[in-house]
Write a structure and sequence with these properties.
Layout: E1 15-16, H1 25-40, E2 45-49, H2 56-65, E3 74-78, H3 91-101
Parallel strand pairs: 1-2, 2-3
Domain NADP-dependent oxidoreductase: 12-83
InterPro entries: AKR (IPR020471), NAD(P)_OxRdtase_dom_sf (IPR036812), NADP_OxRdtase_dom (IPR023210)
Organism: Paenibacillus aestuarii
Amino acid sequence: MKDQRNGLELSRIGLGCGHMSNVNEAVKSACIAAIHAAFDSGINHLNTADFYGAGRSEMVIADALKGYKRDDYFLSLKFGALKNDLFNRSGDYLLGGDKMTLK
């Protein structure tokens, strides 16, 4: 798949970032290094969700992406899952989920 705005080709393999949510500083550094290594290997697709560690995986990703241009990567987001197997599928939540998850 190619991004129509800038021609960037989506890598065939993405990096799931759910495991990057409940980490201490040493592990956070390793997660950031893993994201950089993925980019160096040609992987340009990261996947996360607002419910991974209550948004903590997104903070790790944000730190890892410092210095990268937004046009260098794809970021897929899942949202709507709450705790205890509850889901919010309202239109307001779905339309605003990307703004909440990309703080």
